[in-house]
Amino acid sequence: MGAYILRRLMLIIPTLIGIMIINFSLVQFVPGGPIEQILARLDGGGDSLAAITGSGDAGSEGQGSSEYLGARGLPPEFIAELEKQFGFDKPPLQRFLDMMWNYARFDFGESYFRSISVTDLVLEKMPVSISLGLWSTLIAYMISIPLGIRKAMRDGSRFDTWTSGVIIVAYAIPGFLFAILLLVLFAGGSYFKIFPLRGLTSEGFEDLSLLGKIGDYAWHMALPILASTIASFATLTLLTKNSFLDEIGKQYVMTARAKGLTEGRVLYGHVFRNAMLIVIAGFPAAFVSIFFGQSLIIETIFSLDGLGQMGFKAVVERDYPVMFGTLYAFGIMGLIVGILSDMMYVWIDPRIDFEGRR
């Protein structure tokens, strides 16, 4: 297993470089870079001087062009100074190499428009997204595994039929639509005002007791977690059921029953470990999927200031240090999660041998 993990770790480097090359190349063809954003604000009378003077060392990301829509009436020397300050006076290849050298040392630079380092910005926003992703994944597993086992044991019954109908409907409802429905019904829309409309905590949160803080946090996170759980809950339930049905029909289960073992002993002593292999081993990937895939929509609808909102604003504002810095960091996380999933397979079932594969 050690040699296999070492090979996978070595593959992270070329894979990550490939991801960065593709995205960096695509950005070169996207109009409206950060300098054009600043010039457009200046041309429109916006307060962009603070953004210019507070942007710090812009690093080497993004595109550079001398033709800007907002450059009318501005002296060329001013534009050239902006290009130099943001690093766009260098050719694209040099900017990319400088960027990768800084990222290899985990130096992600500073946001163009927020006067804060990318690392500090990510750490500031991460608790919201981690809370959403972690609790959604845990609740989905806590509901889906017992429900999937129950459906497998009563396959074809009325319970299995009506729960399958509910699951199919839940899977068919888009997450954003369900989130809006929850807001309308329970967050001060046309019906009830039970849960808060936005935010992660209430005003005066710091003055609450420990129990009060936990209750306030759960009160604010209830609807976002429910909205982000529904799709994964449906998929995971059916996966658990099908895994159990596949194992129940195998020869070793019939042998165990023939020996006189109780149904509970057969189910949880033999079937459970084999059937749960694919479900439990997929936990890291499921967490990352909820963490990255659904965070933008849910955070936007419920006004949660997390990584999804941050990434969306960075793309809109062409904040390249935030865009590429988070892409690099989360790309590493995603590749490492893939290795962790393989390690969980081996931990759950030692019969699996990745090194013996050809």
Task: Compose a concise summary of this entry.
It is a multi-pass membrane protein. The protein has 16 helices and no strands.
Written overview of the protein:
It is a multi-pass membrane protein. Residues 126-345 form the ABC transmembrane type-1 domain. InterPro entries: MetI-like, MetI-like_sf. The chain crosses the membrane at residues 9-30, 128-149, 161-187, 217-240, 275-302, 322-348. It holds the Pfam family BPD_transp_1. This protein has 358 residues and is mostly helical. The protein has two domains: 2-118, no CATH class; 124-317, Orthogonal Bundle (MetI-like fold), CATH 1.10.3720. It is 70% helix and 0% strand. It contains 16 helices and no strands. It has helices at residues 2-27, 34-43, 49-53, 76-86, 92-104, 118-153, 158-172, 175-186, 210-248, 251-258, 263-275, 277-281, 283-293, 295-301, 307-317, 320-348. α6 (118-153) packs parallel to α16 (320-348) and α10 packs antiparallel against α11. The longest helix is centred in the middle third of the chain and has 39 residues, at 210-248. The protein is globular and about 90 Å long. The relative contact order is 0.14. Residues 45-60 and 63-71 have low confidence and may be disordered.
